[in-house]
Design brief:
Keywords: Membrane, Transmembrane, Transmembrane helix
Radius of gyration: 27 Å
Organism: Ensete ventricosum (Abyssinian banana)
Subcellular location: Membrane
Number of helices: 17
GO molecular function: transmembrane transporter activity
Strand order of the largest sheet: 1-2
Structural class: mainly alpha
Helix content: 55-70%
Membrane topology: Multi-pass membrane protein
Length: 598
């Protein structure tokens, strides 16, 4: 009794200290603790508000970072570009490590807390480099140019970047899943709220990015760097305060141990029992007798998954042999006996990977639009009115504004209309939404190719190879608007798909997978550009991607990406047809998304 009393007091203490354990408020029924009910939209002002301020803060610091390195740190342009690329790539890879730590050890709340504070410290150091002259290279008296950075200056800079990378590794994979945790997916209102949450989360995050790329960058360029960095740093502090303000409303899902060891355990156990016979699929009694079905879960928010026949060879990992179970009904060796729940979670991962791969090609179209549209606009008329001229790098904001405007229309108007027709919650399924985004991305690339041919012909007619087209840069708006709509469908669809289809205790890994798609698209774009340049140059012909855009044939390159998109869409349709949604009973029909995509 004394031991039970001590355990009870300790559990109660942990309930009020989420930094000690992310099991607070979301413990399993076996512990006897009363769970805190998900607050749903009551928690969202704190979570989405935190995300908005965090996006303005981090994007406000990094959007103009290369200019800062060149102007204030005296770096050469290629050195600065290389450092920015390394920083960007590392920031996109870090969420994998952060997801592992969160899912296995800390939980989402604690990981978010530590990562947010780390990001804030990195911003403070970067702001100090702008405010304290001794932390930057001096200006040469004779030339008036800033000297290159010394070892000490680089040490301070690398400390800043290291803190920002560590912060990104924790914030990016945990922010969205933590918001998902606040909805009760076992109820109809909870599921409806979750549908809208993904849309509003992405829309507000994009709006925050627009603010960072316009207002904050303007302050940095036109007012002062210390103020331009100080404002994002203050906003990051405000984001942390806002996040903690909602702590009494949050639900905390506990970590469930190493994700990867659980996957390996299923594979090893299935291999060890590969020669054993599985019970008949329709014999429920034999399955109950021979298979290890029940397993205690740390949270009732984890969906119990039914046994399926897809990847049936893995089911052998649940066959109970002599000596496999302890007297209390638990597995004696997880490398020899795994539960049906654990096996089905591994199957979820195996089903998702082919769908994830299809998203990379779609993001290639998105990333190429940003880069090439800026180059196109440099050979066009960028004036809005008699005096104002649009910066080439700012044209991408058209895509972001489209996302911000379209997502509320989609959520409030199109979804209810589609739901009344299809009867599907959310209007269309998650895979249908991704497929629609891929189709619109293809349309965008075709439109981009047509506009580029018109621009190129006009430029050649008004000055030859070095000419500039009198066409307005607003001719590029249709392709960018289409790309914004494509991103609203596909990117938001991917985010929601990963968070719904991944096992609940792996959702931070799911969020990191989205960033891996972006990283994969960047690497594939680099390879594609190098391949096209090499294969289209020779025998007196200029490359399609020549440094002089009027000499090259960027329109052909757009069509190549569109053709890749068509092949990718066909591949996606096959994957969607074969995909089985998480928790779907074996007797129900499989996914019918291919019909909707067609």
């Amino acid at each position: 009794m004394k031991r039970s009393s001590r355990s009870s007091r300790r559990a109660s203490s942990m309930d009020h200290n989420p930094l000690l354990s992310d099991g607070a408020g979301a413990a399993s029924d076996e512990t006897g603790r009363e769970e805190r009910k998900p607050g749903g939209w009551k928690s969202m002002p704190f979570i989405i508000g935190n995300e908005a301020f965090e996006r303005v803060a981090t994007n406000g610091l990094t959007a103009n970072f290369m200019v800062y390195l060149v102007e204030q740190y005296g770096m050469r342009q290629m050195e600065a570009a290389t450092l920015c690329n390394v920083f960007s790539g590392t920031s996109n890879a870090a969420p994998l490590l952060g997801a592992f730590v969160s899912d296995a050890y800390w939980g989402r709340f604690r990981t978010l807390t530590y990562a947010s504070v780390t990001t804030f410290l990195g911003m403070v150091v970067l702001t100090l480099t702008a405010a304290v002259p001794q932390l930057r290279p001096p200006v040469a008296e004779q030339s008036g140019q800033r000297l290159g950075p010394s070892g000490a200056h680089l040490a301070v800079l690398f400390l800043t970047l290291a803190l920002l990378v560590l912060g990104a590794g924790g914030v990016r994979p945990c922010s969205l899943p933590f918001g998902v945790d606040q909805f009760d997916r076992s109820t109809e209102p909870g599921r409806r709220g979750l549908n809208s949450f993904f849309n509003w989360y992405y829309s507000i995050s994009t709006a925050a990015t627009v603010v960072a790329m316009t207002a904050v960058v303007y302050i940095q360029d036109s007012v002062s760097w210390p103020l331009g960095f100080g404002i994002p740093t203050a906003l990051m502090l405000l984001a942390i305060i806002l996040f903690f303000a909602g702590i009494r409303l949050y639900v905390f899902v506990p970590p469930e141990g190493s994700v990867f060891s659980g996957v390996l355990q299923v594979l090893v156990a299935a291999f060890r029992k590969r020669k054993l016979r599985l019970p008949a699929p329709n014999d429920a009694v034999e399955q109950e007798t021979l298979l290890y079905i029940n397993q205690a879960r740390k949270s009732t928010m984890v969906m119990k998954l039914p046994l399926t026949l897809q990847f049936r060879f893995l089911n052998k990992a649940a066959i109970v042999c002599e000596g496999d179970m302890k007297e209390d009904g638990r597995s004696a060796d997880p490398w020899k006996l795994c539960s049906v729940q654990q096996i089905e979670e591994v199957k979820c991962l195996m089903r998702i990977v082919p769908i994830w791969a299809s998203g990379i090609i779609c993001f290639v179209a998105l990333t190429q639009q940003w880069t090439l549209a800026a180059l196109q606009s440099m050979k066009m008329d960028r004036h809005l009115g008699p005096s104002f001229q649009i910066p080439p790098g700012s044209l991408g904001i058209i895509c972001l504004i489209t996302i911000v405007l379209f997502i509320p229309i989609y959520d409030r108007i199109l979804v209810p209309m589609a739901t009344s027709i299809t009867g599907v919650q959310g209007g269309i399924t998650l895979l249908q939404r991704q497929g629609a985004g891929m189709a619109i991305a293809i349309m965008s690339m075709v439109v981009a190719g047509l506009v580029e041919k018109k621009r190129r012909d006009s430029a050649l007619a008004h000055g030859g190879a070095d000419g500039s087209s009198p066409l307005s840069a607003m001719w590029l708006a249709p392709q960018l608007c289409l790309m914004g709509v494509a991103e609203a469908f596909n990117a938001v669809g991917q985010v929601e798909f990963y968070n719904r289809q991944f096992p609940e205790h792996m959702q931070t890994l799911a969020a990191s997978l989205f960033h891996c798609s972006l990283a994969g698209a960047s690497f594939l774009s680099t390879f594609l550009i190098a391949f096209v340049q090499k294969s289209t140059r020779g025998q007196g012909r200029a490359s399609w991607l020549d440094d002089n855009i009027n000499v090259g044939r960027v329109d052909y390159y757009y069509y190549v990406i569109a053709a890749l998109g068509v092949g990718n869409l066909l591949y996606f349709m096959v994957c969607a047809h074969l995909y089985r949604y998480k928790g779907t009973p074996e007797l129900e029909d499989g996914c019918k998304d291919i019909k909707a995509v067609l």
